[in-house]
User: What shape does this take?
Amino acid sequence: MFESVTKKLRDARKIVFVTGAGISHESGIPTFRGKDGLWRNYDAMKLATVNAFYDNPKLVWEWYNERRKNILYAEPNLGHKAISELEKYVKVIVLTQNIDGLHQRAGSTEVLELHGSIVKIKCTVCDFKSEILTEFTQIPPLCKCGNVLRPDVVWFGESLPQEIWQQAVTHASKCDVMIVVGTSLAVSPANTLPIYAKQNNATLIEINPEETIMSSDMNLSIRSPSVVALPKFVSIFK
Ligand code: BJW
Ligand code: ZN
Assistant: This one.
């Protein structure tokens, strides 16, 4: 099994990674649903929906501000770096649910952020959008138009940025190998990307210490942390 997957990797013209919170675990960023996951201590419906934001923008902003501080100090780990190094050998596209920007900071050049970015903000009323790398002095921050600004992330019940989603589906539908790393695949529509890949007969590989709802569809499941598993993928190409 492992040998045939190794050959598929060496022969691949395009490898698509679908990544989630688990890949950033060793960078000190908590996951959502694991045993130390954010949703164990925080109610997703009070923090990650539009209604929650309008009910209490200050609470939601305080939560995002804490996460911003943690993420801005975090460093890409060996898993992020291995994915970026693979670009030396094969075309690599990263479809990430993470908002932490660590793939880009590790050097990956083709990253589609499906759920937005923690450093981006947008106005709730006008078209203003920006990137803020410093801390906010006022919570909630206000736009020049006087209305409240929000994090430019995708909350439950909101659509993903349509152009990015369409590009992600196209990449997933046209790849030879898809490697799904550190995601529970609990959240739609991102969790449908492996299905698009499978419809194209792509080889599916999962890197996750735990089983997921799609484990039985995988050609190979690697049950180890991504910081351990991903550097080994690079050595296959050397
Ligand atoms: C390791 C590791 C290591 C650990 N190495 N691995 C009912 C009402 C309303 C909506 C819905 C509904 N039913 C279904 C929906 C749709 C909803 C959805 O899927 N909900 C489910 C939870 C049921 N989806 C949406 O609403 C999406 N939009 C949408 O569908 O639009 C159409 C629509 C409109 C209106 C109504 C209905 C549909 C939008 C989803 C937005 C998700 N947003 C969040 C927050 C983003 C901003 C932020 O970060 O603050 O995105 S929630 C959170 O989950 C975040 C993540 O990107 C996302 C996925 O989580 P991920 O990455 O998989 O993390 P975990 O924690 O789940 O898993 C980590 C994994 O890592 C685990 O498996 C570990 O084992 C593993 N791991 N250590 C490798 N070292
Ligand atoms: Zn505005």
